[in-house]
């Protein structure tokens, strides 16, 4: 059996509950992103809103990062 990095079902299964929690956080990130984007359109001079939008984008990507981390931790 060759371990090429693609077959890590145990890491995937262990990461599912955490991915679900991060999915909920990413939904919050979507809401923050939409509100921040609207505020940026209304007043583009607010740099703090731009930082908030960037952080919201990272929250949206959270489930993917969590699953990648878990699958990397468990060997084949």
Automatic annotation (TrEMBL):
Taxonomic superkingdom: Eukaryota
Q: Where are the transmembrane segments?
A: 12-32, 38-57
Q: Which UniProt keywords apply?
A: Membrane, Transmembrane, Transmembrane helix
Q: Which InterPro entries match?
A: TAXIMIN_1/2 (IPR055283)
Q: What PANTHER family does the entry give?
A: SIGNALING PEPTIDE TAXIMIN 1 (PTHR33834:SF2), SIGNALING PEPTIDE TAXIMIN 2 (PTHR33834)
The protein depicted here goes by the name Signaling peptide TAXIMIN 1
């Amino acid at each position: 059996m060759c371990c090429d990095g693609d077959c890590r079902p145990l890491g995937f299964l262990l990461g599912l509950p955490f991915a679900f929690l991060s999915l909920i956080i990413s939904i919050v990130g979507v809401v923050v992103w939409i509100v921040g984007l609207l505020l940026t359109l209304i007043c583009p001079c607010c740099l703090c809103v731009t930082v908030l939008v960037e952080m919201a984008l990272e929250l949206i990507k959270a489930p993917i990062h969590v699953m990648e981390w878990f699958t990397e931790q468990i060997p084949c």
